[in-house]
Amino acid sequence: MFKVQFFQWFQLKRKSIFIGMFMGLLVFAWFSLIQLIPDRIQISDPSKLTLGQNLPVSYQWKDEEEVFAGGTSDTYKLNCRFLGIIPVKSVTVQVVDEQQVIPAGTTAGILLEMDGVYVVDTSEIEDVSGKFQDPASHIVKPGDYIKAVNKTAVSTKEDLSKAVASCKGEDLILTLVRNGEQMDCKIKPVKTGEDDYKIGLWVKDDLAGVGTITYIDEQGRFGALGHGISSSETQQLISLSSGKLYQSDIVAVNKGKKGTPGELVGMIYYTSDNYFGNIQYNSQAGIFGRLENASDELADMEAIPVAYKQEIETGPAQIQCNVDGEIQKYDIEIEEVNINSKNKNKSMLIHVTDERLLNKTGGIVQGMSGSPIIQNGKLIGAVTHVMVNDPTEGYGIFAETMLEETEKCA
């Protein structure tokens, strides 16, 4: 009797567990479908609308007559239904003019001048009596920008050093910008020698390196890197006062390998003859500005259309970059397209398949960030990051994301 009751109880529980698992799978599939449908898209020709690859949804314009009549609005709603029956999602569609850009892929020397004196860290210093003091601790923080000392503007490390050296031991009022907010703080300098004072700060006022220009638009504006420039110490996005691009040559390649990212080693020529552009804006999507003296190599390149994210397909594509003194195209595979990615710098997963590039670099290396990604004759994005444990794989950003930032440039 007990065995029969237990068997019946087990059968009932098994059905409940099965039903629960089935419902859980349905919910998971439903939310996965919602994530595959973009929240917002741009399109230049509404008659060629697509939402991506192989989605089991049908869609219909909310104001179809107005869309195809060229209405006064440039933003419309698209209603999506699962199997043509169940409402799933409403997509915002912005109708825009078709854009064309020149895919660059050329390396450039990048020099950023920070918007103030950037604080890397505080440190202890030894005073004249042999005691160690840390005058800036808990007052100034890494990531702060020093804008003035005693209400006198400073913009370089030299400005700050001169202000401290001339303090005669009196308190200094530092004007800081921290997380976008300005504040004043008081620091007591430490005497370290005869008429010598210090405040215990590690600082810098510029950054330099090599990166890749992604594109140039018809107005001469450029986008590069595909990710912002951040401090290596604090990982904060650098606030810049100005920036410049200079000609550079790749003199060596440190190949990437598992656990160790490689890099392009460049020689940058910081002379007026080699200056060719100004950097106006540093954002999470890259650096942006205007070219002023484009090289003959760039001037001879032809513009191609920009593809929007819903047009991108998994499958073959190419990246365009300079790893040995010449801009070339190399084969890659688009493995994933995350159309609603919360991290704009990781919207695509890419895999290098071209043996020529693998032999030269081992895959994606530092300095290749910004290399344009081209598919079906259109610019779809740029390389942003490498997988540390597999240099043949990395991430990319959508071209439309970068172009939106370009519009902020003068």
Automatic annotation (TrEMBL):
Enzyme Commission no: 3.4.21.116
Protein keywords: Hydrolase, Membrane, Transmembrane, Transmembrane helix
Transmembrane region(s): 16-37
Superkingdom of source: Bacteria
Listed InterPro entries: PDZ_sf, Peptidase_S55, SpoIVB
Domain Peptidase S55 as annotated: residue spans: 181-410
Keyword Ribosomal protein found: no
Family matches, as SUPFAM superfamilies: PDZ domain-like
PROSITE patterns according to UniProt: SPOIVB (PS51494)
GO MF annotations, alphabetized: hydrolase activity
Protein name: SpoIVB peptidase
Organism this protein belongs to: Brotonthovivens ammoniilytica
